[in-house]
Amino acid sequence: MALKTWESTFAPSLDASQWPEYNGDEYVPDCGLLKQKTGRRKRKRLRNEMDDSSKGYGEDMAMAHPDYPLLETFYDREHRAHLMVDDGEVLSPLRIHTHSPLRWDERYAPCIGRAGFLPLARLVMTGLPMFDNAALTALVDRWRSEIHTFHLPCGELMVTLQDVAMILGLPVDGQPVCGNVQPAGWRDMVELIVGTRPPEPTQEAKDKKPLGVSSAWLAQNFTECPHDAVEHVVERYARAWLWLLVGGYLFPDRTGNTVSWMYLPLLGKEWENVGLYSWGSATLAFYFD
């Protein structure tokens, strides 16, 4: 902004005869110092994680697959299909790693419905369906992580927001889902929202679960809501049920046993406010990560 303060009053003279005489040093460029280099000028930029993950992407890796030009051999090095077809490795079918939901109580339905999760809750309340391990493995073998699509004989197949909305019944419009990443005092927050405090780690052992609780702890404390429970106790059990649904199914931990508390502050809001977030978009982005 300071450079443009006197911009309107500056009028350079284009007539060289009006310029003052210069008696200083004369500089003559040395053409021999020019770099004889062709191509596009390189620019300095900040490096990020993508640059580190693409190390080794040389001339032998940049060429397209000889039989399938759309696929890059760089992404095939660790792919299951490459290991089985090209290297001849015998790999067993994949198996889904998950856990059973908490026992459903119909008293949870009004709360879960106000939060917008009742369609999905109806799908998982009786347990997850049987999975075809062979079909699951075939889809994984044809998944292309660089473009987030399945490469099938009939063409490319991609999971869209419409699929998430139609299959899971989650909202795809609303506020972005941003979880809390500060671990300080997370046990106090859990106790405030669900009424039960996670156990403290012993002095000898390190806190191996600083970002969540185990599914076994949730099952131990919130398996069945008491029949004579008052309304606020029922709501706490409903939040614990919803917590496991979100942290254990929509955003699972890689270990398959830890339920993260990062989304619990959002689930601890008023039930109507929980439904204002775009849970469908967050779910799709989580699986694309």
Protein described:
The structure is a single chain. The protein has a domain at 106-129 and 169-288. The chain is 35% helix and 5% strand. The chain has 13 helices and 5 strands. It has helices spanning 49-53, 59-62, 80-85, 109-114, 118-124, 133-141, 161-168, 186-194, 215-222, 231-250, 264-267, 271-274, 279-288; strands spanning 143-144, 149-152, 155-157, 212-214, 258-260. It has a 3-stranded antiparallel β-sheet. Strands 4-5 form a two-stranded antiparallel ribbon. The two termini are 41 Å apart.
List the helices and strands and how they pair.
Elements: H1 49-53, H2 59-62, H3 80-85, H4 109-114, H5 118-124, H6 133-141, E1 143-144, E2 149-152, E3 155-157, H7 161-168, H8 186-194, E4 212-214, H9 215-222, H10 231-250, E5 258-260, H11 264-267, H12 271-274, H13 279-288
Antiparallel strand pairs: 1-2, 2-3, 4-5
Helix pairs in contact: 7-13
Portion of residues within helices: 25-40%
Beta-strand percent range: 5-15%
Structural class, please? mainly alpha
Molecular shape: extended
Number of helices, where a helix is a run of at least 4 consecutive DSSP H or I residues: 13
The counted number of beta strands is: 5
Strand order of the largest sheet: 1-2-3
* Uncertain residue ranges: 56-62
Q: Helices and strands, in N-to-C order? A: HHHHHHEEEHHEHHEHHH
Measured between the Cα atoms of the first and last residue, the distance is 41 Å
Q: Radius of gyration from the CA trace?
A: 29 Å
Q: Please, what is the average pLDDT?
A: 78
Biggest sheet record: 3 strands, antiparallel
